[in-house]
Predict the 3D structure of the following.
Amino acid sequence: MSDGIKLPLPMKKGFGATDRVDDWWKGPTAMAAYLGIMIVYATWRGFMEADFWIFEEFGRSAGNQTMAIESEGSHVLSPLFSPLVIPGQGTFGGPIPEALWWMSPAMFILIFPAGFRGTCYYYRKAYYRAFLQQPTGCAISKPWNEYSGETGLLLVQNLHRYFLYAALAYLPILSYDVWLSVNFHDPVSHAHSYGVSVGSLVLAVNVIALAGYTFGCHAFRHLVGGGSNLWTSGSRPILRYRMWKISTWFNEHHKDWALYSLFIVMSCDFYIYACTMGWWTEIVLWGGL
Ligand code: FES
């Protein structure tokens, strides 16, 4: 094997200097705007239901209820607040120490979806470029050190495979929320019936989008079939092969699932928020009370 001769690439030097003639900056700029809007919106909604400082004027603190639509006996819970952990109350919130009761329900649960997305292989590429300029882009120069890989603190990105388990656990929880949304109860007569509202459909689309994103995860694909050397004999290897094929199908469009599912989660929450504020009215399309 030849040692070869290592020569520096003939690149221009200076921030943004490049020989590229395409609009290379458009992608990272659009991504920075998109992710920035999503992060600001999720943060605002998380704090809205908190119980301190100016947030006492809004949401849960002020007695308003912006986490779920309680319309005609159905319960449509925003995915940003599911599973619902109200500090100091109920099954999940009961054990929470009083010192943390100022926190909003979203703050307890968003750590897992945020960790899953923050360590996702696709998102890493996107925000390294969009926010950190590591790198600015292929064959684009910049004045400080070049990208040196995921070392040091960035080793925390290896937690992605563990966040995957949390993300998988969310799918049945969010599916259960869809089920709750199609069950209508009359609080007075205790009558029960089924129905479908716009809110139920919005929740269902959200679960489908999140499932597509999760099943196409690189770590999930490895988990179901990547570590296997035998796919052809026995029911278990064949099952793993089939699951790997399905995961591969989702994985081929992982970027799209990642970006669209994020938008759908936020839109889903905004729909519920708008209904609870009275800007829109939740409509029962079929059945109901
Ligand atoms: S690689 Fe994107 S979710 Fe796992």
About this structure: The pocket of FE2/S2 (inorganic) cluster is lined by residues 120-122, 160, 217-219, 254 (CB under 6 Å). The chain has one domain: 26-287.
